[in-house]
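Let's do one together. I've listed all components of the complex below, 341 residues spread over two lines.
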Amino acid sequence: MSTDEQLLQTLRAALDRTDPMPEAIRAAAYAAFAWRDIDAELAALIADSAETPIPAGVRTAADHRLLTFRAPGTEIEIEVAGERLRQLTGQLVPPGPASITVCWPAGSLAVEADDLGRFTADNVPPGPVSLQVRRPSAARPVSTDWVVI
Amino acid sequence: MTDQSTSTLVAAARAGSREAWHALVDRYARLVWAVIRGHGIGGMDAADISQTAWLRLVEHLDRLRDPDQVGSWLAATTRHECLRFLNRRGREHVTESLPDHPSVEPTPEEHVVAADRDRLLAAALAQLPPRCRVLLRALTSDPTPSYAELAAALDVPIGSLGPTRSRCLARLRELLAALGHEPDVESAGSNR
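Okay, and this is what the predicted structure of the assembly comes out as:
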């Protein structure tokens, strides 16, 4: 009978051989530092419809996901749709125009929110995204928490 | 930089040091990865969750209440992202996905037994409850996480880790025995 330590050691060796962390994972983590932006105000994710487990077999709820981010004085609501490329439909609260950049690790897309604070962004690749919102009246841009869509 | 304290690395990264950031990644990337794989997530989904955890840390670097606990913060953030992903998939019972890049190199005769043992261990690990998979994967990550980091990865009190670890390893032994395997004999040839 081996000790727990020996069994863990055997497991460690097996996982090192069969399921090591790909180097691309480390490289992507290194690269994340390039996104550091000390000017932006953080809009934290405060609600995600994906937090609620979806019963097996129910598909409609999974097709539209609602995300809400909040920074002091601003909320950003986003609906995510699309099977492959995503379509984002957003609403700023309080409503008003803004320049919005949808960022993902390999690129970005600039869109405008109208006077009612509505915006859409098409063909966003699935994966991590963050939105940068710049209202004409605000001193600082707002960046949302990164979230996987 | 690798022997610096975690809070020193966080302070240097806050000041813009890429070297310090890389040292933080080297210290915690495997813990983040272990939590994701322990939840049975692989492929692009695993890559997305890992990168999201690190991107979040970049954003939150200046807001961390306790820079020494950045490992726990990462473990908890990663766990949360895994649960969010699994909920979105509506998959309540997820079995561990296979490694992305299983070893395909030709196996010399003396490695056959080791490869068999690896497969059996992987099969047994996949049958463990998620909590055990996360704990055992985290325990075998490099460097070995602190108790606080393990507790954050599982969202359990530190005091429960010891008993949980014993239970999970006992269960792993049972599964290996059921698979007809003597788990802890390292010498080739004595298997079966």
